[in-house]
Each structure stands twice: as structure tokens, then as C-alpha cells.
């Protein structure tokens, strides 16, 4: 399967600052990337679907201006949490879908733990 | 509506016991994919298996086996001779026609020595 990295793995920031999270597909070109959010002891919640070169598609209830997604290349997508607040503290995970043998499979990154003070 | 239900929130077993994690799904699609992922304490989701709706053969991979039953809309996962390293949260997921994954609530498996 695809190898996916995320950076940073953990970030602590002050309320009101913006935080950028990178998601990279290291060995395959990712036709589509997904961003999820996970609260403790909960399942994954899809935030948005990101296709290279086009605008991301956000799920209902997810603020586009709050969570900016840029899919600049076939191997990189970024999620920027703008003007972060304590309620944005969460575990953010990206996944990639490749154009390989099994394009229906999503491979996940290691996640980024965000703590907003 | 598309839905995945993992009724077991937490399971605790002693090492070497066999354990089955249940997954029941709902979909109107005739073609679909089902998945199992493992999430260890580190947080990363590890892909375990993919099954498409046309393939009802059961699969075995080492100590892991999967039982796909379309008639009951179930895709259960069995770990044989469980080990402490199997302790994790396991997610069952359904891929909808738009390509999105619909996750179950997850089952937290604790294997005690």
C-alpha cells in the first residue's frame, strides 16, 4: 500500500493562531486525499475530500474558511486550521487514494495531534 | 442510508484466546467495498483487508480471518490466538459510490497477558 506521512505529528498552539498540517504521499501519486478528524474514543469524521488542482469538497457542517485545504500537487495536501480555538483540539488524519491497482483503498497517515491552549 | 455498525464497543480477552469482532453494514449499492483497519495507540490507521461485494470468499491471513456474509450484511473479523500486540481499536468501513469511507464506531480490543 501507499506510504503516507504527516507533519507535524504533534502541535501545541495558542488560541487565535493558525496551524498548517502537511500530508504527503511518499511512494504513489495521490489522485485524491481525504482529511478526517477524530475525537478521543470516537470514530473518524470526514472533513473534506481534496483533489489535486481543484477546490476541496467539504462535508456538511465543516467550515471552509476555518479549515483551509490546499492540494497543490499529486503528493501533497495541506490543512490549515485558521484562528484555532480550544474546541479545534483534536486528532487530524489524512488519507490518500492512489491510481494504482486498488484505487478504492485509502491509506492513512500517522495523524497530527493538535492542542489549542 | 449507508451505515456501519460495530456493536461491540470494548472487548477484553486473555492472550491466546480467539476473538471475533462484529461488523454489520447497510447499503443500497449493488457494488461496494468493505474494509477493516487497525488503530494502535500510536494513532495511525493500518489497512488490514479490502473485500468487494462480489467476492464472498472468506479470507485468512496468518492469525487473522474474515467472514463476509452478504445475506446478513456482515463482515466479521476473527483473531486466532490473540496476542498483546493485537490490542488496538479496530474499525470496519464501507466505501460508498462517491468514494467516501463510512466508518463504524470502532471496537477497542484489549488483550491481556
Write structural notes for this entry.
The complex is a heterodimer of chains A (117) and B (113). Chain A has 117 residues and is an all-beta fold. In chain A, strands 2, 4, 5, 6, 9, 10 and 11 form a 7-stranded mixed beta sheet that branches. A 4-stranded antiparallel beta sheet of chain A has the order 1-3-8-7, with no helix packed on it. Helices cover 0% and strands 55% of the residues of chain A. Chain A is globular and about 45 Å long. The mean pLDDT of chain A is 91. Chain B is mainly beta. Chain B contains no helices and 12 strands. Chain B has strands spanning 3-5, 10-14, 19-21, 24-26, 33-39, 46-52, 59-61, 64-69, 74-79, 88-95, 101-103, 107-112. In chain B, 29% of the residues are buried. The model of chain B has no long low-confidence stretch (mean pLDDT 94).
Largest interface: A-B, 23 and 21 residues
The major sheet of chain A is characterized as: 7 strands, mixed
What is the structural class of chain A? Answer: mainly beta
Parts with pLDDT < 50 across at least 5 consecutive residues of chain B? none
Cα(first) to Cα(last) distance of chain A is: 36 Å
Low-confidence regions of chain A: none
- Name the average pLDDT of chain A: 91
Strand content of chain A: over 45%
Averaged pLDDT of chain B: 94
State the helix count of chain A: 0
Rg of chain B, Cα atoms, Å: 14 Å
Amino acid at each position: 500500500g501507499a506510504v503516507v506521512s504527516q507533519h507535524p505529528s504533534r502541535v501545541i498552539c495558542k488560541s487565535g493562531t493558525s496551524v498548517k498540517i502537511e500530508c504527503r504521499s511518499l511512494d504513489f501519486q495521490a489522485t485524491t486525499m481525504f482529511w478526517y478528524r477524530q475525537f478521543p474514543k470516537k470514530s473518524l469524521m470526514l472533513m473534506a475530500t481534496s483533489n489535486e488542482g481543484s477546490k476541496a469538497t467539504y462535508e456538511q457542517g465543516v467550515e471552509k474558511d476555518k479549515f483551509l485545504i490546499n492540494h497543490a500537487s499529486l503528493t501533497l495536501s495541506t490543512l490549515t486550521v485558521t484562528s484555532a480555538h480550544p474546541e479545534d483540539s483534536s486528532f487530524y488524519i489524512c488519507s490518500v487514494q492512489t491510481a494504482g491497482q486498488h484505487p478504492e483503498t485509502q491509506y492513512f497517515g500517522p495523524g497530527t495531534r493538535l492542542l489549542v491552549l | 442510508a449507508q451505515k456501519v455498525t460495530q456493536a461491540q464497543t470494548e472487548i477484553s480477552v486473555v492472550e491466546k484466546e480467539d476473538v471475533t469482532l462484529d461488523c454489520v453494514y447497510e447499503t443500497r449499492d449493488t457494488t461496494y467495498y468493505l474494509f477493516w483497519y487497525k488503530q494502535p495507540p500510536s494513532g495511525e490507521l493500518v489497512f488490514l483487508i479490502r473485500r468487494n461485494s462480489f467476492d464472498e470468499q472468506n479470507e485468512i491471513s496468518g492469525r487473522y480471518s474474515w467472514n463476509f456474509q452478504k445475506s446478513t450484511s456482515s463482515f466479521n473479523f476473527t483473531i486466532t490466538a490473540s496476542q498483546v500486540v493485537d490490542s488496538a481499536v479496530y474499525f470496519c468501513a464501507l466505501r460508498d459510490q462517491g468514494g467516501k469511507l463510512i466508518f463504524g464506531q470502532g471496537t477497542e480490543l484489549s488483550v491481556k497477558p
